[in-house]
């Protein structure tokens, strides 16, 4: 019985020492082009995918064109490099209206 107590304590210590993973949420409307291109929040590809889903969802479009997604992400990156202070949603709108 005495050997079980130290083993159970070891299990509790290891479980308590495991790193906690924080859940992070962010307001996309507050992301700037500088944050987008500088990987300051996450990989820009993750944001591009979210933006694509958001805008296609607004239009009721359920089709995914992966080549178009890649091309649009590159256009957004290029725009953001030239306009680092612009919020990302405004950058997308500028690109959409330019079409």
Q: What would the principal axes of the Cα set say about the shape? A: globular
Largest sheet: none
Number of domains: 1
Q: How many helices does DSSP assign?
A: 5
Q: What gyration radius follows from the Cα positions, in whole Å?
A: 22 Å
**Structure class:** mainly alpha
CATH third-tier fold name: 10k-s Protein, Hypothetical Protein A, Chain A
Q: What does this protein structure show overall?
A:
The protein is mainly alpha-helical and 99 residues long. The protein is 63% helix and 0% strand. It has a single domain (23-98), classed as 10k-s Protein, Hypothetical Protein A, Chain A (Orthogonal Bundle). It has helices at residues 4-17, 33-37, 44-58, 66-82, 88-98. Helix 3 (44-58) packs across helix 4 and helix 4 (66-82) packs across helix 5 (88-98). The model has no long low-confidence stretch (mean pLDDT 85).
Brief descriptors of the model:
63% helix, 10k-s Protein, Hypothetical Protein A, Chain A, 5 helices, mainly alpha, 99 residues
Summed up, what is this model?
The protein has 99 residues and is an all-alpha fold.
Question: How is the topology of this model organized?
Answer:
Layout (H helix, E strand, L loop, with lengths): L3 H14 L15 H5 L6 H15 L7 H17 L5 H11 L1
Helix pairs in contact: 3-4, 4-5
């Amino acid at each position: 019985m005495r050997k079980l107590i130290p083993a159970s304590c070891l299990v509790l210590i290891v479980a308590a020492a495991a790193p906690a993973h924080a859940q992070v949420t962010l307001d996309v409307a507050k992301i700037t082009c500088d944050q987008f291109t500088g990987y300051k929040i996450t990989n820009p590809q993750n944001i591009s995918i979210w933006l694509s889903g958001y805008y296609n969802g607004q239009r009721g479009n359920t089709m995914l064109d992966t080549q178009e997604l890649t091309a649009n992400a590159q256009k957004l990156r290029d725009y953001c490099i030239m306009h680092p202070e612009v919020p990302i949603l405004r950058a997308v709108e500028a690109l959409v209206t330019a079409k």
